Amino acid sequence: FIIDRNINYTNAWTAAWRFCAFAFWPGDKRTYTNSYETIYEKTKELVSLGGTQLLLQGGHNPELKIEYYEDLFKKLRNDFPTVLLHALSPSEVDHICNVSDLDTKTILERLKAAGLNSIPGGGAEILVDRVRNEISPLKIKSDRWLNVMEEAHKIGLKTTATMMFGHVETLEERIEHMDRIRELQDKTNGFTAFISWTFQRDNSPLGKEFEEKDVKVSDSLEYLKTLAISRIYLDNVPNFQSSWVTQGVKIGQLALAFGANDMGGTMLEENVVSAAGTLHCATIDEIVHSIQETGKAAAQRDTAYNVIKVLTKK
């Protein structure tokens, strides 16, 4: 597990999607962009709890160009040198390219120079354009998501890969998603982990549509089966995270017997999933205990999966 915090620096989004209950269009009175003072205080709290990773993700805010991110990352790197920045999904990187009128390699190199350590795999959803055209038509397509990841891998930025399933995709499309991740991993070996979770339907436009049509969404059993299949199929990806934030700690714990070797982050703060009506919380001690209950050793790691310390049972 890793002690981390997820800070959403803005929720203004020009590529809002049907399954999201968190983001709003620029100009909406519910949008915000956090000040550095706010981000500083949140990061200070993370460090005080022994945290080592800051997960920074936000929207597609047309007012924020590359200079904003360079300034933010440099300040965080200077003020918190022990915290690694795991930040910006491929969709956000693509947006920064567009609003800054710069190519992907240039943007990634400038972000890395400013302090970016790795990139989370958010926004992958299902890497099949039929699905993406239905649930997130304004977001980047599958090839572009993979292209950003490949460019990141080429300059030494490691990333994670994700899959959000249980909505409009077929079982064959889930496998196609995994196959595309596997193919890029064979080429670059840049993915450190794979994280999957089920569609959280509450409060989102797509979820309301499902509810009206009485469409069933994936349950915990299907989550565990899909996790196990991904562990078998993606045999070139070294780590698999348990999605306890969406499934709850007990299912997250059970996931350790279905292929997961990582409980993921402690998530001292989480806004996107909770906006969809799902809020599973756990303290660091509870996460450690849930691992140890299975007979496994609990080890705190860093972003690169280096073990910081192994915690023995009290």
- Rg from alpha-carbon coordinates: 18 Å
Helix-and-strand structural type? alpha/beta
Give the CA-based shape: globular
Total number of helical segments? 13
Largest sheet: 7 strands, parallel
Our estimate of the beta-strand percent is 5-15%
Query: Within the largest sheet, what's the order of strands?
Result: 1-2-3-4-5-6-7
What would your notes on this structure say?
α7 links the parallel β5 (158-165) and β6 (191-198). This protein has 314 residues and is of the alpha/beta class. It contains 13 helices and nine strands. α6 packs parallel to α7 (171-188). The chain has helices at residues 36-48, 66-79, 90-100, 104-114, 129-135, 142-154, 171-188, 205-212, 220-233, 244-247, 249-254, 272-275, 284-292, and strands at residues 4-8, 53-57, 84-87, 116-119, 158-165, 191-198, 239-241, 298-301, 307-311. It is globular, with a radius of gyration of 18 Å. The strands form two sheets. Strands 1-2-3-4-5-6-7 form a seven-stranded parallel sheet. The protein has a two-stranded antiparallel sheet with strand order 8-9. Residues 17-22 and 270-278 have low confidence and may be disordered.
